Protein backbone atom coordinates (compact mmCIF):
# COMPACT_ATOMS: atom_id res chain seq x y z
CA UNK A 1 0.00 0.00 0.00
CA UNK A 2 2.74 2.39 1.08
CA UNK A 3 4.82 1.15 -1.82
CA UNK A 4 1.99 1.89 -4.26
CA UNK A 5 1.61 5.37 -2.85
CA UNK A 6 5.32 6.01 -3.22
CA UNK A 7 5.20 4.94 -6.85
CA UNK A 8 2.17 7.11 -7.63
CA UNK A 9 3.81 10.09 -5.95
CA UNK A 10 6.94 9.46 -7.95
CA UNK A 11 5.02 9.28 -11.22
CA UNK A 12 3.19 12.50 -10.41
CA UNK A 13 6.41 14.40 -9.70
CA UNK A 14 7.94 12.97 -12.87
CA UNK A 15 4.98 14.23 -14.90
CA UNK A 16 5.30 17.69 -13.36
CA UNK A 17 9.04 17.74 -14.11
CA UNK A 18 8.55 16.74 -17.71
CA UNK A 19 5.75 19.26 -18.18
CA UNK A 20 7.94 22.02 -16.77
CA UNK A 21 10.88 21.09 -18.99
CA UNK A 22 8.63 20.95 -22.05
CA UNK A 23 7.08 24.33 -21.30
CA UNK A 24 10.39 26.08 -20.73
CA UNK A 25 11.97 24.73 -23.88
CA UNK A 26 8.83 25.39 -25.91
CA UNK A 27 8.88 29.06 -24.97
CA UNK A 28 12.65 29.52 -25.17
CA UNK A 29 13.12 28.11 -28.67
CA UNK A 30 10.33 30.34 -29.91
CA UNK A 31 11.59 33.49 -28.21
CA UNK A 32 15.25 33.30 -29.27
CA UNK A 33 16.11 34.83 -32.66
CA UNK A 34 16.04 32.71 -35.81
CA UNK A 35 13.05 30.89 -37.22
CA UNK A 36 12.62 27.63 -39.10
CA UNK A 37 10.69 29.15 -41.98
CA UNK A 38 13.59 31.31 -43.09
CA UNK A 39 15.76 28.18 -43.25
CA UNK A 40 13.29 26.38 -45.53
CA UNK A 41 12.54 28.93 -48.20
CA UNK A 42 14.72 30.14 -51.05
CA UNK A 43 15.99 33.75 -50.74
CA UNK A 44 13.49 35.02 -53.34
CA UNK A 45 10.40 33.81 -51.45
CA UNK A 46 7.58 36.31 -51.06
CA UNK A 47 5.91 37.50 -47.88
CA UNK A 48 2.95 35.43 -48.95
CA UNK A 49 4.98 32.22 -49.12
CA UNK A 50 6.32 32.89 -45.63
CA UNK A 51 2.85 33.46 -44.26
CA UNK A 52 1.48 30.30 -45.89
CA UNK A 53 4.29 28.16 -44.47
CA UNK A 54 3.91 29.71 -41.02
CA UNK A 55 0.23 28.84 -41.07
CA UNK A 56 1.05 25.30 -42.27
CA UNK A 57 3.29 24.67 -39.24
CA UNK A 58 0.96 26.53 -36.89
CA UNK A 59 3.62 29.13 -36.13
CA UNK A 60 1.21 32.00 -36.73
CA UNK A 61 -0.66 31.24 -33.52
CA UNK A 62 0.37 32.51 -30.05
CA UNK A 63 2.99 30.50 -28.17
CA UNK A 64 0.46 29.37 -25.58
CA UNK A 65 -1.94 28.21 -28.26
CA UNK A 66 0.87 26.35 -29.99
CA UNK A 67 1.82 24.73 -26.70
CA UNK A 68 -1.70 23.52 -26.06
CA UNK A 69 -1.91 22.07 -29.57
CA UNK A 70 1.47 20.37 -29.13
CA UNK A 71 0.48 19.02 -25.71
CA UNK A 72 -2.76 17.69 -27.16
CA UNK A 73 -0.71 15.73 -29.69
CA UNK A 74 1.74 14.45 -27.06
CA UNK A 75 -1.08 13.06 -24.95
CA UNK A 76 -2.04 10.94 -27.97
CA UNK A 77 1.56 9.93 -28.57
CA UNK A 78 2.08 12.38 -31.43
CA UNK A 79 5.18 14.51 -30.94
CA UNK A 80 4.75 16.29 -34.24
CA UNK A 81 6.75 16.14 -37.44
CA UNK A 82 10.33 17.24 -37.85
CA UNK A 83 10.52 20.36 -40.03
CA UNK A 84 13.97 19.60 -41.45
CA UNK A 85 13.70 15.82 -41.80
CA UNK A 86 9.96 15.62 -42.51
CA UNK A 87 9.45 12.51 -40.45
CA UNK A 88 7.60 11.93 -37.16
CA UNK A 89 9.66 13.23 -34.22
CA UNK A 90 8.84 10.19 -32.08
CA UNK A 91 10.25 7.84 -34.71
CA UNK A 92 13.42 9.92 -35.17
CA UNK A 93 14.10 10.31 -31.47
CA UNK A 94 13.41 6.70 -30.54
CA UNK A 95 15.60 5.59 -33.44
CA UNK A 96 18.57 7.53 -32.06
CA UNK A 97 17.99 7.01 -28.34
CA UNK A 98 19.54 3.50 -28.19
CA UNK A 99 22.85 4.78 -29.59
CA UNK A 100 23.10 7.45 -26.89
CA UNK A 101 21.96 5.09 -24.14
CA UNK A 102 24.58 2.52 -25.08
CA UNK A 103 27.31 5.15 -25.18
CA UNK A 104 26.31 6.67 -21.82
CA UNK A 105 26.00 3.35 -20.07
CA UNK A 106 29.32 2.13 -21.42
CA UNK A 107 30.88 5.39 -20.21
CA UNK A 108 29.24 4.94 -16.81
CA UNK A 109 30.58 1.38 -16.52
CA UNK A 110 34.07 2.56 -17.43
CA UNK A 111 33.85 5.46 -14.97
CA UNK A 112 32.70 3.26 -12.09
CA UNK A 113 35.35 0.62 -12.81
CA UNK A 114 38.17 3.12 -13.18
CA UNK A 115 37.06 5.42 -10.35
CA UNK A 116 36.40 2.47 -8.05
CA UNK A 117 39.84 1.01 -8.76
CA UNK A 118 41.48 4.37 -8.07
CA UNK A 119 39.61 4.75 -4.79
CA UNK A 120 40.50 1.23 -3.64
CA UNK A 121 44.17 1.64 -4.55
CA UNK A 122 44.36 5.02 -2.84
CA UNK A 123 42.72 3.63 0.29
CA UNK A 124 44.76 0.44 0.43
CA UNK A 125 48.03 2.35 0.25
CA UNK A 126 46.85 5.56 1.90
CA UNK A 127 49.45 7.95 3.14
CA UNK A 128 51.95 6.52 0.68
CA UNK A 129 53.05 7.39 -2.81
CA UNK A 130 50.24 5.39 -4.39
CA UNK A 131 47.66 7.66 -2.78
CA UNK A 132 49.53 10.75 -3.92
CA UNK A 133 49.57 9.40 -7.48
CA UNK A 134 45.85 8.66 -7.30
CA UNK A 135 45.19 12.20 -6.05
CA UNK A 136 47.14 13.68 -8.93
CA UNK A 137 45.36 11.48 -11.49
CA UNK A 138 41.97 12.40 -10.04
CA UNK A 139 42.87 16.07 -10.06
CA UNK A 140 43.80 15.94 -13.71
CA UNK A 141 40.73 13.88 -14.57
CA UNK A 142 38.42 16.36 -12.92
CA UNK A 143 39.95 19.52 -14.29
CA UNK A 144 40.01 18.51 -17.97
CA UNK A 145 36.52 18.57 -19.54
CA UNK A 146 35.19 15.66 -21.60
CA UNK A 147 35.51 17.30 -25.03
CA UNK A 148 39.18 18.07 -24.40
CA UNK A 149 39.73 14.44 -23.45
CA UNK A 150 38.00 13.64 -26.74
CA UNK A 151 40.41 15.77 -28.74
CA UNK A 152 43.37 14.33 -26.86
CA UNK A 153 42.17 10.79 -27.52
CA UNK A 154 41.69 11.55 -31.22
CA UNK A 155 45.26 12.82 -31.32
CA UNK A 156 46.55 9.71 -29.54
CA UNK A 157 44.48 6.84 -30.89
CA UNK A 158 43.23 8.38 -34.11
CA UNK A 159 46.37 10.07 -35.40
CA UNK A 160 49.52 8.89 -33.59
CA UNK A 161 48.49 5.25 -33.07
CA UNK A 162 45.35 4.75 -35.17
CA UNK A 163 43.99 1.91 -33.04
CA UNK A 164 40.34 2.94 -32.90
CA UNK A 165 37.79 4.48 -35.24
CA UNK A 166 37.45 8.22 -34.81
CA UNK A 167 34.00 8.64 -36.27
CA UNK A 168 30.65 6.97 -36.63
CA UNK A 169 28.95 4.25 -34.65
CA UNK A 170 29.61 1.20 -36.78
CA UNK A 171 31.57 0.48 -39.96
CA UNK A 172 29.21 1.08 -42.93
CA UNK A 173 30.34 -2.05 -44.82
CA UNK A 174 29.09 -4.30 -41.99
CA UNK A 175 25.80 -6.04 -42.59
CA UNK A 176 23.70 -5.58 -39.46
CA UNK A 177 21.15 -8.33 -38.85
CA UNK A 178 19.53 -6.39 -36.02
CA UNK A 179 15.88 -5.75 -35.28
CA UNK A 180 16.46 -2.93 -32.75
CA UNK A 181 18.83 -0.01 -32.62
CA UNK A 182 20.54 -1.33 -29.50
CA UNK A 183 23.41 -2.59 -31.67
CA UNK A 184 25.89 -3.32 -28.89
CA UNK A 185 23.34 -5.12 -26.75
CA UNK A 186 21.93 -7.07 -29.64
CA UNK A 187 25.31 -8.05 -31.04
CA UNK A 188 26.09 -9.59 -27.65
CA UNK A 189 22.76 -11.41 -27.53
CA UNK A 190 23.16 -12.76 -31.04
CA UNK A 191 26.77 -13.72 -30.27
CA UNK A 192 27.99 -11.65 -33.21
CA UNK A 193 31.20 -10.67 -31.46
CA UNK A 194 32.74 -9.43 -34.71
CA UNK A 195 30.13 -6.66 -34.73
CA UNK A 196 30.59 -6.10 -30.99
CA UNK A 197 34.30 -5.54 -31.58
CA UNK A 198 33.61 -3.09 -34.39
CA UNK A 199 31.07 -1.19 -32.26
CA UNK A 200 33.48 -1.03 -29.32
CA UNK A 201 36.29 0.20 -31.56
CA UNK A 202 33.98 3.07 -32.50
CA UNK A 203 32.69 3.69 -28.97
CA UNK A 204 36.03 3.44 -27.20
CA UNK A 205 37.17 7.03 -27.55
CA UNK A 206 33.85 8.82 -27.00
CA UNK A 207 33.02 6.65 -24.00
CA UNK A 208 36.46 7.11 -22.44
CA UNK A 209 36.25 10.87 -23.00
CA UNK A 210 32.88 10.91 -21.24
CA UNK A 211 34.06 8.55 -18.50
CA UNK A 212 37.31 10.20 -17.39
CA UNK A 213 35.90 13.26 -15.55
CA UNK A 214 33.26 11.09 -13.85
CA UNK A 215 35.86 8.44 -12.97
CA UNK A 216 37.96 11.12 -11.29
CA UNK A 217 34.99 12.35 -9.24
CA UNK A 218 34.05 8.82 -8.21
CA UNK A 219 37.68 8.04 -7.39
CA UNK A 220 38.11 11.09 -5.19
CA UNK A 221 34.81 10.90 -3.39
CA UNK A 222 34.84 7.15 -2.80
CA UNK A 223 38.41 7.29 -1.52
CA UNK A 224 37.50 10.03 0.94
CA UNK A 225 34.49 8.11 2.08
CA UNK A 226 36.45 4.85 2.37
CA UNK A 227 39.17 6.51 4.40
CA UNK A 228 36.61 7.90 6.82
CA UNK A 229 34.92 4.53 7.10
CA UNK A 230 38.26 2.83 7.77
CA UNK A 231 38.50 4.75 11.04
CA UNK A 232 35.12 3.56 12.36
CA UNK A 233 34.74 1.17 15.27
CA UNK A 234 33.39 -1.80 13.34
CA UNK A 235 36.38 -1.66 11.01
CA UNK A 236 38.76 -1.62 13.97
CA UNK A 237 36.90 -4.55 15.46
CA UNK A 238 37.27 -6.47 12.18
CA UNK A 239 41.02 -5.91 12.32
CA UNK A 240 41.21 -7.63 15.69
CA UNK A 241 39.46 -10.63 14.15
CA UNK A 242 42.52 -11.25 11.99
CA UNK A 243 41.45 -9.75 8.68
CA UNK A 244 44.09 -8.16 6.47
CA UNK A 245 43.89 -4.63 5.20
CA UNK A 246 42.55 -5.46 1.72
CA UNK A 247 39.91 -7.73 3.11
CA UNK A 248 38.85 -5.14 5.68
CA UNK A 249 38.43 -2.54 2.96
CA UNK A 250 36.38 -4.77 0.67
CA UNK A 251 34.36 -6.56 3.30
CA UNK A 252 33.70 -3.96 5.98
CA UNK A 253 34.20 -0.53 4.52
CA UNK A 254 33.27 -0.59 0.83
CA UNK A 255 29.56 -1.18 1.08
CA UNK A 256 29.08 1.54 3.67
CA UNK A 257 31.36 3.96 1.86
CA UNK A 258 29.56 3.52 -1.45
CA UNK A 259 26.32 5.07 -0.19
CA UNK A 260 27.35 8.75 -0.09
CA UNK A 261 29.14 8.33 -3.42
CA UNK A 262 26.12 6.82 -5.08
CA UNK A 263 23.92 9.90 -4.82
CA UNK A 264 26.58 12.01 -6.42
CA UNK A 265 27.21 9.49 -9.17
CA UNK A 266 23.54 9.75 -10.07
CA UNK A 267 23.73 13.51 -10.40
CA UNK A 268 27.02 13.32 -12.29
CA UNK A 269 25.67 10.67 -14.64
CA UNK A 270 23.00 13.10 -15.80
CA UNK A 271 25.82 15.56 -16.58
CA UNK A 272 27.51 12.78 -18.51
CA UNK A 273 24.36 12.26 -20.57
CA UNK A 274 24.37 16.01 -21.22
CA UNK A 275 28.00 15.68 -22.28
CA UNK A 276 27.03 13.23 -25.03
CA UNK A 277 25.69 16.15 -27.06
CA UNK A 278 29.13 17.58 -27.73
CA UNK A 279 31.04 14.29 -27.63
CA UNK A 280 28.73 12.67 -30.17
CA UNK A 281 29.29 15.67 -32.42
CA UNK A 282 33.04 15.40 -31.98
CA UNK A 283 33.07 11.73 -32.97
CA UNK A 284 30.23 11.95 -35.53
CA UNK A 285 28.44 9.36 -33.44
CA UNK A 286 24.87 8.95 -34.64
CA UNK A 287 23.11 9.48 -31.35
CA UNK A 288 20.49 11.76 -29.88
CA UNK A 289 22.97 14.48 -28.94
CA UNK A 290 24.31 14.79 -32.44
CA UNK A 291 20.74 15.03 -33.71
CA UNK A 292 20.01 17.71 -31.12
CA UNK A 293 22.74 19.95 -32.51
CA UNK A 294 21.40 19.57 -36.06
CA UNK A 295 17.92 20.28 -34.81
CA UNK A 296 19.05 23.49 -33.14
CA UNK A 297 21.01 24.63 -36.20
CA UNK A 298 17.95 24.04 -38.39
CA UNK A 299 15.59 25.58 -35.82
CA UNK A 300 13.64 22.35 -36.06
CA UNK A 301 11.29 23.24 -33.21
CA UNK A 302 9.30 19.99 -32.95
CA UNK A 303 12.47 17.91 -33.02
CA UNK A 304 14.24 20.01 -30.36
CA UNK A 305 11.13 19.67 -28.25
CA UNK A 306 11.07 15.90 -28.64
CA UNK A 307 14.75 15.48 -27.84
CA UNK A 308 14.51 17.63 -24.73
CA UNK A 309 11.58 15.59 -23.44
CA UNK A 310 13.55 12.38 -23.94
CA UNK A 311 16.60 13.81 -22.14
CA UNK A 312 14.41 15.03 -19.29
CA UNK A 313 12.76 11.62 -19.03
CA UNK A 314 16.20 10.03 -18.99
CA UNK A 315 17.33 12.25 -16.10
CA UNK A 316 14.32 11.41 -13.97
CA UNK A 317 14.82 7.72 -14.76
CA UNK A 318 18.45 7.92 -13.61
CA UNK A 319 17.38 9.53 -10.34
CA UNK A 320 14.82 6.80 -9.79
CA UNK A 321 17.43 4.09 -10.36
CA UNK A 322 19.79 5.81 -7.91
CA UNK A 323 17.10 5.96 -5.22
CA UNK A 324 16.24 2.30 -5.71
CA UNK A 325 19.89 1.24 -5.57
CA UNK A 326 20.39 3.31 -2.44
CA UNK A 327 17.49 1.57 -0.76
CA UNK A 328 18.77 -1.83 -1.87
CA UNK A 329 22.24 -1.19 -0.42
CA UNK A 330 21.14 0.40 2.81
CA UNK A 331 19.32 -1.99 5.13
CA UNK A 332 18.21 0.88 7.33
CA UNK A 333 16.17 2.32 4.47
CA UNK A 334 14.86 -1.00 3.23
CA UNK A 335 12.84 -1.57 6.37
CA UNK A 336 11.65 1.98 6.74
CA UNK B 1 53.80 -19.84 36.64
CA UNK B 2 54.67 -17.27 34.02
CA UNK B 3 52.15 -14.70 32.83
CA UNK B 4 50.05 -15.32 29.71
CA UNK B 5 50.33 -11.71 28.65
CA UNK B 6 53.34 -9.74 29.69
CA UNK B 7 53.86 -6.13 28.71
CA UNK B 8 57.37 -4.96 29.43
CA UNK B 9 58.51 -1.37 29.51
CA UNK B 10 56.15 -0.33 26.70
CA UNK B 11 56.55 3.24 25.49
CA UNK B 12 54.56 4.90 22.75
CA UNK B 13 54.79 8.39 21.30
CA UNK B 14 52.85 10.53 18.87
CA UNK B 15 54.46 10.09 15.49
CA UNK B 16 56.25 13.27 14.49
CA UNK B 17 55.93 15.29 17.69
CA UNK B 18 57.47 12.63 19.95
CA UNK B 19 55.02 13.40 22.74
CA UNK B 20 54.98 10.43 25.14
CA UNK B 21 51.66 8.62 25.48
CA UNK B 22 52.80 5.47 27.26
CA UNK B 23 55.69 5.75 29.69
CA UNK B 24 57.45 2.43 30.17
CA UNK B 25 54.33 0.44 30.99
CA UNK B 26 54.86 -3.03 32.46
CA UNK B 27 51.86 -5.22 33.21
CA UNK B 28 51.62 -8.94 33.70
CA UNK B 29 48.39 -10.88 33.27
CA UNK B 30 48.07 -14.49 34.37
CA UNK B 31 46.04 -16.91 32.30
CA UNK B 32 42.41 -16.73 33.36
CA UNK B 33 42.89 -13.60 35.46
CA UNK B 34 41.26 -10.22 35.07
CA UNK B 35 43.38 -7.12 35.40
CA UNK B 36 41.78 -3.70 35.52
CA UNK B 37 43.42 -0.74 33.85
CA UNK B 38 42.16 2.33 35.66
CA UNK B 39 42.77 5.98 35.04
CA UNK B 40 41.28 9.25 33.93
CA UNK B 41 40.41 10.02 30.32
CA UNK B 42 43.61 10.30 28.33
CA UNK B 43 45.68 8.30 30.82
CA UNK B 44 46.50 5.79 28.10
CA UNK B 45 44.50 2.88 29.46
CA UNK B 46 42.74 2.15 26.18
CA UNK B 47 46.02 2.66 24.35
CA UNK B 48 47.51 -0.35 26.13
CA UNK B 49 44.69 -2.60 25.00
CA UNK B 50 44.99 -1.31 21.46
CA UNK B 51 48.74 -1.88 21.44
CA UNK B 52 48.18 -5.50 22.48
CA UNK B 53 45.60 -6.06 19.72
CA UNK B 54 47.64 -4.18 17.12
CA UNK B 55 45.00 -1.55 16.44
CA UNK B 56 46.82 1.59 17.54
CA UNK B 57 45.96 4.64 15.46
CA UNK B 58 48.53 5.27 12.74
CA UNK B 59 49.56 8.48 14.48
CA UNK B 60 50.84 6.48 17.48
CA UNK B 61 54.17 4.71 17.36
CA UNK B 62 55.52 2.16 19.83
CA UNK B 63 59.15 3.12 20.44
CA UNK B 64 60.29 0.54 22.94
CA UNK B 65 59.22 -2.43 24.97
CA UNK B 66 57.83 -5.90 24.45
CA UNK B 67 54.37 -7.39 24.40
CA UNK B 68 54.73 -11.09 25.11
CA UNK B 69 51.67 -13.19 24.37
CA UNK B 70 52.29 -16.71 25.63
CA UNK B 71 56.01 -15.98 25.38
CA UNK B 72 56.00 -14.63 21.82
CA UNK B 73 56.83 -10.98 21.28
CA UNK B 74 54.02 -9.45 19.23
CA UNK B 75 56.04 -6.37 18.37
CA UNK B 76 58.83 -8.36 16.72
CA UNK B 77 56.59 -10.57 14.63
CA UNK B 78 55.77 -10.13 10.93
CA UNK B 79 52.49 -8.14 10.79
CA UNK B 80 50.60 -10.91 8.98
CA UNK B 81 51.53 -13.50 11.56
CA UNK B 82 50.71 -11.17 14.40
CA UNK B 83 47.31 -10.38 12.89
CA UNK B 84 46.43 -14.05 12.52
CA UNK B 85 47.69 -14.89 16.00
CA UNK B 86 45.60 -12.10 17.51
CA UNK B 87 42.57 -13.14 15.47
CA UNK B 88 42.88 -16.71 16.68
CA UNK B 89 43.73 -16.14 20.35
CA UNK B 90 42.53 -12.69 21.39
CA UNK B 91 39.41 -10.57 21.06
CA UNK B 92 38.02 -7.14 21.81
CA UNK B 93 34.85 -6.13 23.57
CA UNK B 94 34.48 -2.58 22.28
CA UNK B 95 33.25 0.48 24.10
CA UNK B 96 30.32 1.60 21.98
CA UNK B 97 27.96 -1.14 20.83
CA UNK B 98 26.13 1.31 18.56
CA UNK B 99 29.13 1.83 16.30
CA UNK B 100 30.96 -1.46 16.65
CA UNK B 101 28.65 -3.54 14.48
CA UNK B 102 28.72 -3.09 10.73
CA UNK B 103 25.38 -1.50 9.78
CA UNK B 104 25.16 -3.22 6.41
CA UNK B 105 25.79 -6.79 7.54
CA UNK B 106 23.42 -9.02 9.42
CA UNK B 107 24.35 -9.87 13.00
CA UNK B 108 24.98 -13.59 12.43
CA UNK B 109 27.92 -13.25 10.05
CA UNK B 110 29.48 -10.70 12.38
CA UNK B 111 29.73 -13.42 15.03
CA UNK B 112 30.71 -16.25 12.72
CA UNK B 113 33.04 -14.39 10.32
CA UNK B 114 36.20 -14.99 12.33
CA UNK B 115 35.44 -18.68 12.75
CA UNK B 116 34.79 -19.22 9.04
CA UNK B 117 37.31 -16.87 7.45
CA UNK B 118 40.25 -17.02 9.84
CA UNK B 119 39.88 -20.35 11.60
CA UNK B 120 38.44 -22.32 8.72
CA UNK B 121 35.28 -23.66 10.38
CA UNK B 122 32.39 -24.83 8.25
CA UNK B 123 29.51 -22.37 8.04
CA UNK B 124 27.10 -24.78 9.71
CA UNK B 125 29.44 -25.37 12.66
CA UNK B 126 30.05 -21.64 13.03
CA UNK B 127 26.34 -20.90 13.00
CA UNK B 128 25.61 -23.56 15.59
CA UNK B 129 28.37 -22.08 17.73
CA UNK B 130 26.96 -18.56 17.32
CA UNK B 131 23.50 -19.75 18.35
CA UNK B 132 24.94 -21.40 21.44
CA UNK B 133 26.85 -18.24 22.31
CA UNK B 134 23.81 -16.00 21.88
CA UNK B 135 22.03 -18.38 24.19
CA UNK B 136 24.87 -17.99 26.68
CA UNK B 137 24.57 -14.21 26.65
CA UNK B 138 20.85 -14.60 27.38
CA UNK B 139 19.45 -13.56 24.03
CA UNK B 140 16.05 -15.05 23.33
CA UNK B 141 15.42 -16.41 19.82
CA UNK B 142 19.07 -16.49 18.72
CA UNK B 143 18.10 -17.66 15.22
CA UNK B 144 15.94 -14.59 14.63
CA UNK B 145 18.49 -12.20 16.10
CA UNK B 146 21.22 -13.58 13.85
CA UNK B 147 19.14 -12.62 10.84
CA UNK B 148 18.60 -9.06 12.11
CA UNK B 149 20.49 -5.95 11.16
CA UNK B 150 22.18 -4.02 13.98
CA UNK B 151 19.80 -1.05 13.70
CA UNK B 152 16.91 -3.33 14.60
CA UNK B 153 18.40 -4.10 18.03
CA UNK B 154 18.85 -2.11 21.24
CA UNK B 155 22.22 -1.01 22.62
CA UNK B 156 22.13 -3.63 25.36
CA UNK B 157 21.32 -6.37 22.82
CA UNK B 158 24.14 -5.23 20.59
CA UNK B 159 26.62 -5.29 23.46
CA UNK B 160 25.51 -8.85 24.28
CA UNK B 161 26.09 -9.76 20.65
CA UNK B 162 29.56 -8.19 20.72
CA UNK B 163 30.34 -10.14 23.87
CA UNK B 164 29.20 -13.34 22.19
CA UNK B 165 31.32 -12.48 19.15
CA UNK B 166 34.36 -11.85 21.35
CA UNK B 167 34.04 -15.29 22.93
CA UNK B 168 33.30 -17.02 19.61
CA UNK B 169 36.79 -18.35 18.90
CA UNK B 170 37.32 -19.32 22.56
CA UNK B 171 40.08 -16.72 22.93
CA UNK B 172 42.63 -16.92 25.72
CA UNK B 173 42.76 -13.13 26.07
CA UNK B 174 40.05 -10.50 25.85
CA UNK B 175 40.52 -6.77 25.97
CA UNK B 176 37.37 -5.14 27.29
CA UNK B 177 37.60 -1.46 26.44
CA UNK B 178 35.18 0.34 28.77
CA UNK B 179 32.45 -2.07 27.71
CA UNK B 180 29.75 -0.51 29.89
CA UNK B 181 30.51 3.18 29.51
CA UNK B 182 28.23 3.81 26.53
CA UNK B 183 25.26 1.96 28.01
CA UNK B 184 22.30 3.05 30.09
CA UNK B 185 22.96 2.77 33.80
CA UNK B 186 20.25 0.14 34.12
CA UNK B 187 21.87 -2.00 31.44
CA UNK B 188 25.43 -1.45 32.68
CA UNK B 189 25.02 -3.72 35.66
CA UNK B 190 23.56 -6.58 33.61
CA UNK B 191 26.33 -6.35 31.03
CA UNK B 192 29.00 -6.25 33.69
CA UNK B 193 27.53 -9.31 35.37
CA UNK B 194 27.37 -11.02 31.98
CA UNK B 195 31.02 -10.31 31.22
CA UNK B 196 32.06 -11.60 34.63
CA UNK B 197 29.95 -14.71 34.14
CA UNK B 198 31.33 -15.40 30.65
CA UNK B 199 34.90 -14.76 31.79
CA UNK B 200 34.56 -17.17 34.69
CA UNK B 201 32.94 -19.87 32.56
CA UNK B 202 35.48 -19.67 29.75
CA UNK B 203 38.51 -18.97 31.95
CA UNK B 204 39.64 -16.19 29.64
CA UNK B 205 42.33 -13.78 30.71
CA UNK B 206 41.03 -10.23 30.48
CA UNK B 207 42.37 -6.71 30.39
CA UNK B 208 39.49 -4.64 31.66
CA UNK B 209 39.84 -0.96 30.78
CA UNK B 210 37.68 1.38 32.81
CA UNK B 211 37.62 4.65 34.68
CA UNK B 212 35.25 3.26 37.24
CA UNK B 213 36.83 1.76 40.37
CA UNK B 214 33.46 0.40 41.38
CA UNK B 215 33.37 -1.71 38.22
CA UNK B 216 36.94 -2.87 38.78
CA UNK B 217 36.16 -4.07 42.28
CA UNK B 218 33.42 -6.33 40.94
CA UNK B 219 35.29 -8.08 38.19
CA UNK B 220 39.08 -7.84 38.57
CA UNK B 221 41.67 -9.71 40.63
CA UNK B 222 44.42 -7.14 40.01
CA UNK B 223 44.56 -3.61 38.85
CA UNK B 224 46.97 -1.08 37.45
CA UNK B 225 46.39 2.60 38.04
CA UNK B 226 47.55 4.82 35.20
CA UNK B 227 48.30 8.49 35.10
CA UNK B 228 49.53 10.17 31.93
CA UNK B 229 50.58 6.86 30.41
CA UNK B 230 52.52 5.72 33.47
CA UNK B 231 51.56 2.91 35.81
CA UNK B 232 51.60 4.61 39.22
CA UNK B 233 50.48 1.55 41.12
CA UNK B 234 49.91 -2.09 40.40
CA UNK B 235 48.32 -4.24 43.05
CA UNK B 236 46.06 -7.14 43.83
CA UNK B 237 42.48 -6.01 44.22
CA UNK B 238 42.19 -6.80 47.92
CA UNK B 239 45.40 -5.02 48.86
CA UNK B 240 44.50 -2.02 46.78
CA UNK B 241 41.17 -1.37 48.39
CA UNK B 242 42.56 -2.05 51.86
CA UNK B 243 45.61 0.18 51.49
CA UNK B 244 46.35 1.95 48.22
CA UNK B 245 50.08 2.65 48.16
CA UNK B 246 50.32 5.67 45.90
CA UNK B 247 48.85 9.04 46.89
CA UNK B 248 47.17 9.34 43.48
CA UNK B 249 45.49 5.93 43.98
CA UNK B 250 44.24 7.06 47.37
CA UNK B 251 42.88 10.26 45.87
CA UNK B 252 41.21 8.32 43.05
CA UNK B 253 39.63 5.95 45.52
CA UNK B 254 38.43 8.85 47.62
CA UNK B 255 36.94 10.49 44.54
CA UNK B 256 34.68 7.50 43.78
CA UNK B 257 31.09 8.59 44.41
CA UNK B 258 29.20 6.65 47.05
CA UNK B 259 25.54 5.87 46.56
CA UNK B 260 24.88 6.61 50.22
CA UNK B 261 26.23 10.13 49.93
CA UNK B 262 26.33 11.12 46.25
CA UNK B 263 27.27 14.80 46.60
CA UNK B 264 29.42 14.74 49.71
CA UNK B 265 31.52 11.89 48.38
CA UNK B 266 32.36 13.65 45.11
CA UNK B 267 35.85 14.91 45.82
CA UNK B 268 38.24 16.08 43.15
CA UNK B 269 41.83 14.87 43.25
CA UNK B 270 43.74 17.46 45.24
CA UNK B 271 46.36 19.73 43.79
CA UNK B 272 49.33 18.51 45.85
CA UNK B 273 48.59 14.91 44.86
CA UNK B 274 48.61 15.90 41.21
CA UNK B 275 51.84 17.82 41.77
CA UNK B 276 53.46 14.71 43.26
CA UNK B 277 52.46 12.52 40.33
CA UNK B 278 53.37 15.17 37.74
CA UNK B 279 56.82 15.46 39.34
CA UNK B 280 57.26 11.69 39.10
CA UNK B 281 56.31 11.81 35.42
CA UNK B 282 58.72 14.66 34.74
CA UNK B 283 61.55 12.77 36.46
CA UNK B 284 60.70 9.68 34.44
CA UNK B 285 60.71 11.68 31.19
CA UNK B 286 64.13 13.18 32.00
CA UNK B 287 65.55 9.76 32.65
CA UNK B 288 63.95 8.40 29.46
CA UNK B 289 65.28 11.19 27.33
CA UNK B 290 68.78 10.70 28.73
CA UNK B 291 68.50 7.00 28.05
CA UNK B 292 67.37 7.73 24.47
CA UNK B 293 70.21 10.16 23.88
CA UNK B 294 72.87 8.00 25.59
CA UNK B 295 73.36 4.71 23.70
Task: Produce a short descriptive summary.
The complex is a heterodimer of chains A (336) and B (295). Chain A is mainly α.
Key features?
heterodimer; A: 336 residues; mainly alpha; MetI-like fold; B: 295 residues; alpha/beta; six-stranded mixed β-sheet; 11 helices
Q: How would you characterize the overall build of this protein?
A:
The complex is a heterodimer of chains A (336) and B (295). By secondary structure, chain A is mainly alpha-helical. Chain A folds into 2 domains: 2-75, no CATH class; 97-334, MetI-like (MetI-like fold, Orthogonal Bundle), CATH 1.10.3720. Chain A contains 14 helices and no strands. Chain A is globular. The relative contact order of chain A is 0.14. Chain B has 295 residues and is of the alpha/beta class. The model of chain B has no long low-confidence stretch (mean pLDDT 90). Chain B has 11 helices and 10 strands. Chain B has a single domain, classed as Rossmann fold (3-Layer(aba) Sandwich), CATH 3.40.50. In chain B, helix 7 links the parallel strand 7 and strand 8 (205-210). Chain B starts with a strand and ends with a helix. In chain B, the strands form 2 sheets. Chain B has a 6-stranded mixed beta sheet with strand order 6-7-8-3-9-10, sandwiched between helices. At the A-B interface, helix 10 and helix 11 of A face helix 2, strand 6 and helix 3 of B.
Amino acid sequence: MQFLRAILLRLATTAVTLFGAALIVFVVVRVVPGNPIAMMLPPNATEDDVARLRALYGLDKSIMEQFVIWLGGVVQGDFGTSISLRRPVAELVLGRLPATLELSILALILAVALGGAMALLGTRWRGRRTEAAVDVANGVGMSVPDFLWGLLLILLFGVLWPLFHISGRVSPQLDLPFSTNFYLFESLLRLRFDITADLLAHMFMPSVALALPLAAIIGQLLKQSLKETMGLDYVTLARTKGYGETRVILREALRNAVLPTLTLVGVQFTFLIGGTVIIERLFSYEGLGNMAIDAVINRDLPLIQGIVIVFAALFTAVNLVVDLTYAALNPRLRHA
Amino acid sequence: MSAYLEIRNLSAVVRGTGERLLRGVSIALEAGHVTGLVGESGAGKSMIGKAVLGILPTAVEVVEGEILLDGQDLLRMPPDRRRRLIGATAALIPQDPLTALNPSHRVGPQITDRLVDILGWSRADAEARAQALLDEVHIAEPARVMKSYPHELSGGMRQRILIAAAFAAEPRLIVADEPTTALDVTVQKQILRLIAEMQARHGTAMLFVTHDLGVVSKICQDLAVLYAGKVVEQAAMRDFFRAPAHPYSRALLAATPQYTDPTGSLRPVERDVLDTVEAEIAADDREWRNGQAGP
